[in-house]
Design a protein that fits this description.
Elements lengths: L5 H4 L4 E6 L8 H14 L3 E6 L4 H13 L5 E5 L3 H10 L2 E4 L8 H8 L4 E4 L4 H4 L5 E4 L8 H21 L1 H5 L1 H12 L1 H14 L1
Parallel strand pairs: 1-2, 1-4, 2-3, 4-5, 5-6
C-alpha cells in the first residue's frame, strides 16, 4: 500500500476487492461507481483495487475515484499469488463484473479463499457462479456509456449492500466456497474427471 494511504486505511474494518487488468471490459469504472454508493452506507468499508495496465489507464481510474470523491478506495497495483490469497481471505467480497469474461480465474481463486463473489451474467462466470457461492448482476447493454456505467454500478452496490447485511462471508455463501472449488476445480477433481472421460471414450 502507498504510504500516503496508510492513515486512511486505518479507519477501514471491512474490505471488498476488485482484481483485474485495467481494460474497459473489466468494468472497473462501474466498481468505482458502486463504491460511491456503498461508501455512504458503510462508513468502515474500503475498496481494494489490485491490478494494472498501461500507465495512462492508472490515471483514468484514479482520476475517476477522485471525481467520485471516494474516501476509502485503495489502488495496490499488480500483486503475486501469495499476497492475492491474503487479500481474498481478508475480503468480504470479490467484485469482478467483466463483460463476456472468457472463464474468470479470479472467481475461482477468490472462492478458494472462502470469499463470496459478485460478477455479471456474462461469459464464463454465468456457467459456474451459483447462488450458493455468490451472485451475478444483470447485464447492461449500454455499459460503455456514462449512464450505463453508473446503472451497472448501482446494481453492484445494491448487491454489496445485501451481501454485507446478510453476512454472506460467514453465514451463508462463504462456507460453501472452498468445498465447491475443491470438488469442481482442484487438481484432484480435474484428474478424476479426465480419467472418467477416458473410460467413457
Amino acid at each position: 500500500m502507498r504510504d500516503e494511504d496508510r492513515d486512511r486505511f486505518g479507519k477501514v474494518k471491512q474490505i471488498v476487492v476488485f482484481v483485474g487488468k485495467f481494460d474497459d471490459w473489466k468494468r472497473l469504472d462501474s466498481v468505482l461507481h458502486a463504491a460511491a454508493v456503498y461508501e455512504s452506507k458503510f462508513p468502515d468499508l474500503g475498496t481494494v483495487i489490485v491490478g494494472g495496465g498501461p500507465q495512462d489507464s492508472y490515471a483514468v481510474y484514479e482520476e475517476l475515484a477522485k471525481t467520485l470523491e471516494l474516501k476509502r478506495c485503495f489502488f495496490l497495483g499488480p500483486k503475486g499469488q501469495e499476497i492475492l490469497a491474503e487479500i481474498y481471505s481478508a475480503s468480504e467480497l470479490g467484485i469482478f463484473p467483466s463483460y463476456k469474461e472468457p472463464f474468470g480465474m479470479c472467481f475461482i481463486e477468490c472462492m478458494a479463499c472462502g470469499c463470496p463473489v459478485i460478477g455479471a451474467k456474462s461469459g464464463g462466470p454465468a456457467e459456474f457462479v451459483k447462488d450458493d457461492q455468490g451472485a451475478l448482476v444483470e447485464e447492461q447493454d449500454n455499459w460503455r456509456e456514462p449512464a450505463g456505467i453508473k446503472a451497472l454500478g448501482e446494481r453492484i452496490a445494491a448487491t454489496v449492500e445485501r451481501a454485507l447485511k446478510e453476512d454472506w462471508k460467514r453465514k451463508t455463501k462463504g462456507p460453501n466456497c472452498v468445498p465447491f472449488v475443491k470438488a469442481s476445480f482442484s487438481t484432484m477433481a480435474q484428474c478424476k474427471a479426465l480419467l472418467a472421460n477416458m473410460e467413457d471414450w
